[in-house]
Amino acid sequence: MSLLIKGGLVVDPSQRLEELRDLLVDKGKIVAVEPPGQIPDEGRQIISAPGLVVAPGLIDMHAHLREPGEEYKETIASGTQAALQGGFTGVAAMPNTKPVNDTAAVTRLILNQAKEAGKARVYPVGAVSVGSKGEALSEYGDLKAAGAVALTDDGHPVSSSMLMRRAMEYARTFDLPIISHCEDLELRADGVMHEGRISLQLGLKGIPGAAEEVMVYRDLTLAALTGARLHIAHVSTGGSVAIIRLAKAMGLPVTAESAPHYFSLTDAAVLGYDTNAKVNPPLRTDMDLASIKEALRDGTLDAIACDHAPHSSLEKEVEFTAAAFGLIGLETSLGLTLKLVHGGDLTLMQAIAALSTNPARILGVEGGALAVGAAADLTLIDLHREWTVDASAFASRSRNCPFHGWPLKGKAVMTIVGGKVVWEE
Amino acid sequence: MEFRRKDLLGIADLEPEEIRLILDTAASFKEISTRPIKKVPTLRGKTVVTMFYEPSTRTRMSFEIAAKRLSADTLNLTVAASSAVKGETLADTAHNLEAMAPDVLIIRHPTSGAPHYLAQRLKCGVINAGDGLHEHPTQALLDLLTVQEAKGTLSGLKVAIIGDIAHSRVARSNIYGFTKMGSQVTVAGPGTMLPPYLESLGATVTTSLLEAVSNADVIMMLRLQLERMGQMFLSTLREYSQFFGLAPRHLQLAKEDVIIMHPGPLNRGVEISPEVADGPHSLILEQVTNGVAVRMAVLYFLIGGEKG
After folding, report:
1. The sheet that has A150-152: what strands, in order across it?
2. Any residues with CB less than 8 A from the CB of A106 and at least 6 apart, and which?
């Protein structure tokens, strides 16, 4: 039976549409988008959406689903359920699993598990190097044929500039973007938080902003050299923003993302040695936070991706220095982004673009648009719904969320994947 | 003024009045250590556990002597003999110890924040005996007591702290302590050992030893950890001692009655020349004596008195 979503505010950045529209879905596709009341009800399942935003399904382009290998932290089933409840109809799965997703076999396993779970779509990201060891190129052609949409050594950044050059050149062969986790491991050394006033106060070793920025510059200049499609992951500093802005002004086809925690928290969140605020790149300063917001507004940053990084109490209920880096975000990302909308930092259209249209474009996957013929991946959002973050109620298997107890305004209330309502509140 | 804390985790948390109270009490406890029978019954029936995850002679002994002079029972857990080598977590070790009902845990740990981690989870008191690069509050308290005794005041003094500020919990605690009590702290060292934003702790920062010691009332030399050599923090020991080692000629720049301190153990001939370490301005051994008194006072406030 076809599905008619009536009376919602349809927001589609791909066609700069923000109007009341009725939307008809059939056989997994959008078949009509019309002004309210023009599509007859008869014989259709009706979803009444007045007061709701109807957006193209949100896509988180940077998540760690932990399967295979660390299922005690997250599985593809639990992670994609968390995605649905956060409003995401698709997630890109980072390759630092055990084993690393550096082969078609692991990529296929991930896609099979996702299919079996039947929740959000999963877009596997393959490893730049074998085992993400930074030594030899993995099989990009095979990875792509199996379904990988991009390449990264996220979490084990490529230290060798020559390997990064070759990776970019080889990735071009298969038209795959390289997602770079920019971090100079020597400058990071054994740092555990942002190097600044707070790290000094707490006696914790710092990770300077420069550890990120020198690698952002390296990768930009290598992208200019090779013509590769480069996407900079989890930008955390004002310095990185400035270099990316310059590169874009010079016409380099680079894209970049930041995460909600970089525009919602600063290094002050670490006070009291809260391991849920231990993340890499680290939470930075007020000035960095302001730069990230500005860059989302002016388009220097294309996407918001939460870097969902589940860890159990084994990794987090320990001394700060011993704790793992990372926090979970799939179930708070939209709410934190809407805070920027309510605060006047972003328009609703910009927010949806950063959470859906742009990630789809960067990864080259379907979705991100509500045009006739597009896949019927949809997120229905109640912009004014007030709620309190309760990590204990998350669908994720992990609880490492620094936003527990935060009051937020705006929330997904229904997610539709391929024309099927897969989650509703 | 009362001292109503469960834990002593850092000088940054303390009010000046609390510091004053500990120092006054420590001064009165000093006399006990001069008696023929160096023991009072104040903490009889109390159990004090020390957990040292880093090597230490002086601090651990000082705490143990302090506890014994107050008649507490003491138990020392050293890391090699503990469950840490069997993979037990810090929290589990501490909960197991707590199940044996000690009154206070004294912990030294290489991780900044480890004492805070325990304090949040345990009902008994926790004393920080040095955590990572963060704080070493009883060291600062004994330094304050030493200066107070020598100068008769803690306000209006110029205190120079020289050496590897970046890796020194003693420096952090002392910057907080002396600043809170109304003195002015100048820190000096090579640029590699002066972390950014030091000024935000309230200190004046210089790369010149000469500038730091000029007109100083107190000069505190920090121990140079020799393993820093391999980590690009300095060039050679020879150059370090030439530019940042305290020698007799430097004392002429300081106040006439300048006092010289060092938390120990000394690298003689590196950060301090033997002539200065053993000279008439040196209070290095007095610091050790005061360490016992200050720790007696801290134990008394945490587990003695009307709270106990």
Report:
1. A58-63, A88-93, A121-127, A150-152, A178-180, A230-232, A255-258, A303-304
2. A68, A95, A97, A99, A100, A124
How far apart, in Å, do the first and last CA atoms of chain A sit? 22
Residues of A annotated as catalytic are 307
Name the residue among B112, B169, B200 with its Cβ closest to that of A320. B112
CATH of A3-53+375-424, one of 1.10.357.10, 3.40.1010.10, 1.20.58.480, 2.30.40.10: 2.30.40.10
Q: Is the pLDDT of residue B307 over 50?
A: no
Interface test with chain A among B7, B92, B93, B111, by most A beta carbons within 10 Å: B111
Q: Does B198 touch chain A (CB under 8 A)?
A: yes
In tens, the pLDDT along A267-319 reads: 999 999 999 999 999 999 999 999 999 999 999 999 999 999 999 999 999 99
SS3 A181: coil
Residues of chain A within CATH 2.30.40.10 domain(s) are: 3-53+375-424
Interface membership of B255 toward A (CB under 8 Å): no
List, for residues A25-34, the tens digit of each pLDDT value: 999 999 999 9
Q: For CATH 3.20.20.140, list the domain ranges present in chain A.
A: 57-363
- Closest residue on chain A to B196 (Cα): A196
Q: Check if B133 contacts A (Cβ < 8 Å).
A: yes
Which burial class, exposed, middle or buried, applies to A38 when counting CB atoms under 10 A from its CB (0-12, 13-18, 19+)?
A: exposed
SS3 A276: helix
Please check whether residue A148 is in contact with residue A124, taking contact to mean a CB–CB distance below 8 angstroms: yes
Strand partners for B268: B272
- Has domain A57-363 been given CATH number 3.30.700.20? no
- Give the pLDDT confidence score for residue B122 in this predicted structure: 93
Q: ipTM score of the complex?
A: 0.90
Interface test with A, best of B170, B197, B205 (most A CBs within 10 A): B197
CB contact under 8 A, B113 and A202: yes
Type of residue found at A123: Y
Which pLDDT band, with edges at 50, 70 and 90, does B61 fall under?
Answer: very high
Which residue from B90, B117, B169 is facing A273, i.e. has the nearest CB?
B117
Interface test with B, best of A273, A319, A320 (most B CBs within 10 A): A319
Residues of A with CB under 8 A from a CB of B: 195-197, 200-206, 272-273, 317-322
Query: B198–A203: do the CB atoms touch at under 8 Å?
Result: no
HEC secondary structure over chain B? CCCCCCCECCCCCCCHHHHHHHHHHHHHHHHHHHCCCCCCCCCCCCEEEEEECCCCCHHHHHHHHHHHHCCCEEEEEEHHHCHHHHCCCHHHHHHHHHCCCCCEEEEEECCCCHHHHHHHHCCCEEEEEEECCCECHHHHHHHHHHHHHHHCCCCCCEEEEECCCCCCHHHHHHHHHHHHCCCEEEEECCHHHCCCCHHHHCCEEECCHHHHHCCCCEEEECCCCHHHHHHCCCCCHHHHHHHHCECHHHHCCCCCCCEEECCCCCCECCCECHHHHCCCCECHHHHHHHHHHHHHHHHHHHHCHHHC
- pTM, rounded to two decimals: 0.93
CA proximity to A119, closest of A150, A154, A149, A74: A74
DSSP helix/strand/coil, A411:
strand
Retrieve residue B130's tokens.
């040095």
Contact list in A for residue B91 (CB cut-off 8 A) is 317-318
State whether A320 and B113 contact (CB < 8 Å): yes
Q: Which helix (H) or strand (E) holds A257?
A: strand A255-258
